[in-house]
Amino acid sequence: MTALTERPLSIQGERHQREPVPLATDGDVDAYVDGASDGVLACRARGRHLFAPPDRTRLVFDDITDDDLLVRHVQCQSCGLAWFRELWDTVGRGRNQRVEFIDGRLEYRPDPRTGERYQSPPGRGRMTPRQVRGSMATAALAGQSIARIKAQLRAARQP
Ligand SMILES: [Zn+2]
């Protein structure tokens, strides 16, 4: 059995080692939102991917590591560009054999058909879900007068 430190770092572990990345500008976020697919925007606005938990009746491993851990890749059901790479160990023998989840990490792959990428181009800064939601909402309101919307809402409030 290999020491735990030789295994890939968890998402949290990687985050602590990274240099702080500045926030993306509103213009960069707008450009990203403008070109992103609906599934990608849903993950960006939610700040989380949607990975299905293990199926109760069927589990498919697609690789094995040098130290004999089983590997499973799970694709995000929303964006389709994020994959969760899971490492599973086996314990016990025969009828007592079990599989145990050891570690997982995010991987991103471009869409093979469109070339779309989840991550913004390098050097553009980090996008927060709040920024993405703001950009999406602003785009949805394009061409409408916010002053008029406010006036209508105020008028509707009066008895
Ligand atoms: Zn996703």
Which features does this protein show?
disordered N terminus; alpha+beta; 159 residues; four-stranded antiparallel beta sheet; single chain; 18% strand; binds zinc ion; 5 helices
Which hetero compounds are present in the coordinates?
zinc ion
> Would you tell me the overall average pLDDT?
88
The ordered H/E elements are: HHHEEEEHH
Shape: elongated
Strand order, main sheet: write it out: 1-2-3-4
End-to-end Cα distance, whole Å, is 73 Å
Count of alpha and pi helical runs? 5
Question: What does this entry look like structurally?
Answer:
With 159 residues, this protein is an alpha+beta fold. It has one domain (4-157). It is built from five helices and four strands; from the N terminus they run αααββββαα. Strands 1-2-3-4 form a four-stranded antiparallel sheet, with no helix packed on it. Helix 2 (26-35) packs across helix 4 (129-140) and helix 3 (38-46) packs across helix 4. The radius of gyration is 22 Å and the shape is elongated. The chain starts with 10 loop residues before the first helix and ends with a helix. Residues 1-9 have low confidence and may be disordered. The structure holds zinc ion. Residues 43, 49, 76, 78-79, 82 line the site of zinc ion (ZN). Zinc ion is lined by residues 43, 49, 76, 78-79, 82.
